[in-house]
């Protein structure tokens, strides 16, 4: 079990790192969308490439962050009944869900998604829209996202079994940590302060 817990900690670390950086894709998608809207209104022109890249970024953020979302316990749960059960029964429900639903679904998507991506990669499939982008990068997000989700599902399964054995604390308890949004805001603030400091250094003295 200790080896499995070590594997679980490794998966948790990977998805934590992914969650920290994927949020920049949402920012990028938002900025591109805003610029595209301004250009369309002001200059009465647009580009399918700009439209598609924001879709690509949003799809990548949604899929790649699925494992991180599961790690944080932020997936939607219908807990009208389970909330009234004991903690051990809730853990058993989670174990059943990870083993019998999440794992088969993720494996099925990988089974179908990898050949789908590989075919598009080999053929260099392009968007059917005029000026559109190559398709395989966004197709790649599907197996990558579900691969990370599958690994995180196994990590959560391991942690719940370990909890039932009394080896670790409750893995479903919320931990007071900075969110990915807070990390992003702090990173942007640090960049702004660094830029301000550099501009002051480059300003000649009067």
TrEMBL record:
Signal peptide: none
Protein's cellular compartments: Cell inner membrane
TM annotation in the entry: 21-43, 55-71, 91-113, 133-151
Recorded superkingdom: Bacteria
UniProtKB keywords: Cell inner membrane, Cell membrane, Membrane, Transmembrane, Transmembrane helix, Transport
This protein's record includes keyword Cell membrane: yes
Main location: membrane
Domain Tripartite ATP-independent periplasmic transporters DctQ component: 31-161
Xref: InterPro entries: DctQ, TRAP_DctQ
Membrane topology according to the record: Multi-pass membrane protein
Family: Belongs to the TRAP transporter small permease family.
Record text on subunit structure and interactions: The complex comprises the extracytoplasmic solute receptor protein and the two transmembrane proteins.
Chain's role: Part of the tripartite ATP-independent periplasmic (TRAP) transport system.
Protein name in the entry: TRAP transporter small permease protein
């Amino acid at each position: 079990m200790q080896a499995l817990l070590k594997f679980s900690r490794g998966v948790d670390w990977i998805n934590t790192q992914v969650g920290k950086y994927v949020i920049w894709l949402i920012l990028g998608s938002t900025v591109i969308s805003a610029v595209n809207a301004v250009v369309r209104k002001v200059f009465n022109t647009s580009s399918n490439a700009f439209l598609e890249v924001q879709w690509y970024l949003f799809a990548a953020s949604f899929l790649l962050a699925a494992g991180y979302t599961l790690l944080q316990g932020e997936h939607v749960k219908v807990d009208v009944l389970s909330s009234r059960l004991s903690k051990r029964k809730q853990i058993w429900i989670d174990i059943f869900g990870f083993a019998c639903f999440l794992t088969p679904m993720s494996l099925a998507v990988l089974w179908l998604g990898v050949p789908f991506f590989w075919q598009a990669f080999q053929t260099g499939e392009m968007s059917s829209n005029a000026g559109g982008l190559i398709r395989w990068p966004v197709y790649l997000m599907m197996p990558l996202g579900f691969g990370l989700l599958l690994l995180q599902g196994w990590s959560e399964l391991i942690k719940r079994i370990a909890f039932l054995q009394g080896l670790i604390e409750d893995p479903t308890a919320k931990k007071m940590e900075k969110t990915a949004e807070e990390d992003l805001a702090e990173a942007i603030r640090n960049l702004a302060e660094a830029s301000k400091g550099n501009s002051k250094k480059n300003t000649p003295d009067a």
